[in-house]
Amino acid sequence: MNAFTRHLSNIARLGVKELWSLWRDPMMLVLILYLFTVAVYSSARAIPETLHLAAIAVVDEDRSPLSQRIVGAFYPPLFTQPAVITRSEMDAGMDTGDYTFVLNIPPNFQRDVLAGRAPAVQLNVDATRMSQAFSGSGYIQQMVLGEVQEFARRYRASSTLPVDMNARMRFNPTLTQAWFGGAMQYINYITLVSILLTGAALIREREHGTIEHLLVMPVTPAQIMLSKVWSMALVVLIASFLSLNLMVRGILGVPIEGSIVLFFAGAALSLFATTSMGIFIATLARNMPQFGMLMMLTIMPLQMLSGGDTPRESMPEIVQNIMLIAPTTHFVELSQAILYRGAGLETVWQPFLALALIGAVLFFLSLARFRKTIGQMA
Fold first, then answer.
1. What are phi and psi of 115, to 5 degrees?
2. Cα(359)–Cα(230) distance, rounded to whole angstroms?
3. CATH H superfamily, domain 56-153
4. For residue range 119-172, what is the model confidence (pLDDT) as tens digits?
5. Which of 52, 73, 171, 184 is buried most deeply by CB count within 10 Å?
6. Quick check: pTM over 0.90?
């Protein structure tokens, strides 16, 4: 019993030492604060949810009631007030980036429509503004065709469809993209910060020479590793808890459907795996720049292929199978189920079990590597 108590005491004391080392590293604290506040907010708000105030100009060479009707169809908030320009100003406006869309209505457009000749309308799109270009061109085509069809019929009427489809938006009834983007980046940053903190803590021991002090103390490699795991995981849990309540639920207004306690239980299991991964990466690197490069090579596929940014069902089957061994895949699965859909333990027990198994494997692999290389770090 005394040996077990001494074992826990060593782990606790070493963990407190790690917390003090982190507290004396202001740049790391600023990075944690930035990632869980500004970065989460910008991830949610940087990408426009829908077309918003897209700059549009119209070259109206017809000057007819139909062309005026088309010009009047574009108004805020989807588009800016259309600028009526000449053909000679069209290319210059596109070159300088003044307009994202330029609609060219040819001469005799109304006459040809009424005569059934199907005249061509040219739509010029600045495709460098990708988010607006792709959605905006579809909007404009639908609006022009709708105005032309209604003018040709001489009245406005809604066509009667043979089937009435009622769409029910589950879990995000207003289709607010910021809810998904902000929450998913929040989940990604939990993984990123946990790998970064534990790996940086080990690299810091090597660069400051304190690893030599640990080697002459009556502590084992397992105690050293466990102290780094629990202390850095605690920091990430506290930061993520504050970010979830203050930033995600507070400022962004994302409704959380499920149990917060269940989510952070899953986060703790994920942190057990990712902190172990951070130590493993740190044992492969000799300094902080090398660790940074190795971490980026690891974190990028983990985040891109875990199902947070793109549904896993859209990926090749071999990629889906390979990513089953990654902890982020199961963490994203349980996070989406709990936070978005209000799932309980009876639904997410499989990701929980997978995280526990993956975390155990990563921990023992990292411990074996750490025991092998700890003597070389001095």
1. -85, -5
2. 13
3. abc type-2 transporter like domain (3.40.1710.10)
4. 889 999 988 877 778 788 888 999 999 888 888 877 555 556 566 666 666 666
5. 184
6. no
